């Protein structure tokens, strides 16, 4: 099920979302404003969600920061992705569990954070842990 989060509740809902999904493996995708295949790309996959924050930027639209870190024992690092000028936030759920968060910026680009299967993430990291 997909539902838009009202902007007046972004702070509360993003805080709850971050607590519910802390340390879940993610996959971060950017879809450009033109929605063309050429502007659709992945920033990362397999990093763990550490936190998500809403920051107000004066009179401009708010920014959302997504903080991610590598699973223990891997050679990956960490990253923070900022979506500036947020216009819309949607949550996708199924069976009472969060599947994805979609954030649209003022330019029309969409950041989609999907959650990877934890079993898939463990399988991906196993060879790295054995080195």
Write up what this structure looks like:
The chain has 131 residues and is an alpha+beta fold. It has one domain: PH-domain like. It is built from 2 helices and 8 strands, in the order E-H-E-E-E-E-E-E-E-H. The longest helix is centred in the last third of the chain and has 13 residues, at 118-130. The termini are far apart. The relative contact order is 0.22.
Structural class: alpha+beta
Portion of residues in helices? 10-25%
CATH architectural label: Roll
Task: Please name the CATH topology.
Answer: PH-domain like
Order of helices and strands: EHEEEEEEEH
Number of domains: 1
Distance between the termini: 41 Å
Q: Based on CA inertia axes, which overall geometry fits?
A: globular
Strand content: over 45%
Q: Using the CA coordinates, give the radius of gyration.
A: 15 Å
Strand line-up in the sheet with most strands: 1-6-7-8-2-3-4-5
Q: For the residues shown, what is the average pLDDT?
A: 87
**What are the segments in which pLDDT stays under 50 over at least 5 consecutive residues?**
120-131
- Total helices: the number is 2
SS elements, strand count: 8
CATH class: Mainly Beta
Tell me about the biggest sheet? 8 strands, antiparallel
